[in-house]
Amino acid sequence: MIKMVVLDLDGTLLASDKSISAYNLAIIEKCRAKGIKIVIATARSEKSAERSIMLVRPDAMILNGGALVIKSSGEIIYKKLISAETTDGIINACMNNKNAGDITVETEQDYYVSYREAADHPDYMHGVYYDFRKPLSQKSYKIVVEIFDRETAAEIGSKYSECSVIQFSGEHWHRFARKEAGKMAAVKVISKDEKIGIDEIAAFGDDYNDVEMLRECGTGIAMANGIDEAKLAAKYVCGNNDEDGVGRWIEEYIL
Question: Are residues 185 and 174 in the same domain?
């Protein structure tokens, strides 16, 4: 019996235009009415996920790819930050590598970006320009860098044993974060807090940072638009994110 549903946002619950359909929201409400807990699990920060959070009203939020877990009450139950020294070290390594481009850093204080132009989506308009030639000297939840080949990303990541690096599919962006800051680690924290077994959790996702969650949760469902690695890790594949794949699978197999 499914007692918790964990939902990735981009490429999963969100359509390509970053909207959440009325149908998917209605299905989420039906889950809530049956006592099923709803959890958002996203690489986004709380600020950039704010619009989705307001619509979904989840019981808990896995943010920054698993570096932060916040309950609907506002209580923080899990937090993993990269040290200020390591944050500056990774930034410096990327700044001095010809295969790296733009840099964004999510800290407890702000969302810092290396570019002055406005973001192309309103969810990211809060970015603050920072000249990363100067030390940031802050702990960070994640550092996301435009790196044009995986070898360079892996090489930089290998110098910091406390961190892992994951690429976002279809993009050159790579996320550096604490090794403990993964979505599945965060799911386990919520599972314990809610006294819900891992085998009673259904998780939906589409990308590299969802693979572990799809493989280890009791019911893993990959999106039809997801990467092959996600589909191989999951028990099931649902429809794509532009055809209400999440809601239609839940309606047929959970409700």
Answer: no
Q: Are residues 115 and 227 in the same domain?
A: no
Which residues 6+ apart lie within 8 Å of 43 measured at CB? 10, 64, 65, 142, 168, 175, 209
pLDDT tens per residue across span 42-55: 999 999 999 999 99
Reported as a single tens digit per residue, the pLDDT across 180-238 is: 999 999 999 999 999 999 999 999 999 999 999 999 999 999 999 999 999 999 999 99
Q: Give CB contacts under 8 A, 24+ apart, made by 120-125.
A: 121/18, 122/51, 123/18, 123/44, 123/48, 123/49, 123/50, 123/51, 124/48
Please give the residue range of the domain that contains residue 100: 84-178
Phi first, then psi: what are they for 196, rounded to 5°?
Answer: -120, 130
Amino acid at 92: N
Task: Judge contact between 26 and 20, C-beta under 8 A.
Answer: no
Q: Are residues 174 and 204 in the same domain?
A: no
Apex CA 8: angle with CA 10 and CA 147, to 5°?
55
Residues 164-169: contacts with CB under 8 Å, at least 24 apart: 166/65, 166/208, 166/209, 167/208, 168/43, 168/207, 168/208, 168/209, 169/206, 169/207, 169/208, 169/227
Report the candidate in 169, 130, 160, 167 with the shortest Cα–Cα distance to residue 145: 167
Helix axes of 22-33 and 245-253: crossing angle, nearest 10 degrees? 30
